């Protein structure tokens, strides 16, 4: 929890007027990795990742929340990007989301009947390519939603295993790891909260 004191100036005197408390619902924290239960658009972090669709023109779920919070300028920039393939990542400004420097848009795989090897590879690539994009743009902290686990139907536990493995592999690479200070898994709902609470200590301790 961070505390910020806003001050105003009256007769040249610095008078504390209001205290803002920024609450971060940290569920687990191990070294550079955190699990936070929150709306991703409310975080203070260099980059947030959007679970987008191939057109990058907005949709429901976390994509809808990010586009609503960022405003119409985001959609305008997205139109210039020529879409995004599954597993790849593209970057935009963050517009009205002022606590964030950039938005990294990635497209997760759609799971139809059951998870295929290709689904696993593409989901892994979403995390890996988003982290590479962050590093390439000197963004040192990054927050991920649980990509593909909503509308795209990826089972939550299976997806969390891939997500945590992809981040671990990245952080295990010393050259890349020194360019990242913080990776946040954003959980939006009790099921993911329980899954990540169990997985993170196993994967990152
Ligand atoms: N903050 C953090 N996580 C969230 C938020 C939020 N504000 N809102 C939802 N989630 P989904 P997908 C979680 O469906 O499965 C869109 O229409 C949610 O609980 O957003 O990759 C796109 O345009 C779930 O755990 O993304 C695509 O067409 C996770 O975010 C399609 O949906 C991902 O759920 C992408 O589907």
Structure description:
With 205 residues, the protein is an alpha/beta fold. It has a single domain, classed as Leucine Aminopeptidase, subunit E, domain 1 (3-Layer(aba) Sandwich), CATH 3.40.220. Helix content is 36%, strand content 29%. The chain contains six helices and nine strands; from the N terminus they run E-E-E-E-E-H-H-E-E-H-E-H-H-E-H. A seven-stranded mixed beta sheet has the order 3-4-9-8-5-7-6, with helices on both faces. A two-stranded antiparallel ribbon has the order 1-2. A hairpin with a 6-residue loop joins strand 6 and strand 7. Helix 3 packs across helix 4 and helix 4 packs parallel to helix 6. The longest helix is centred in the middle third of the chain and has 20 residues. The N terminus is likely disordered. Ligand AR6 binds next to strand 5 and helix 1. The site of ligand AR6 has 25 residues, from strand 5 and helix 1.
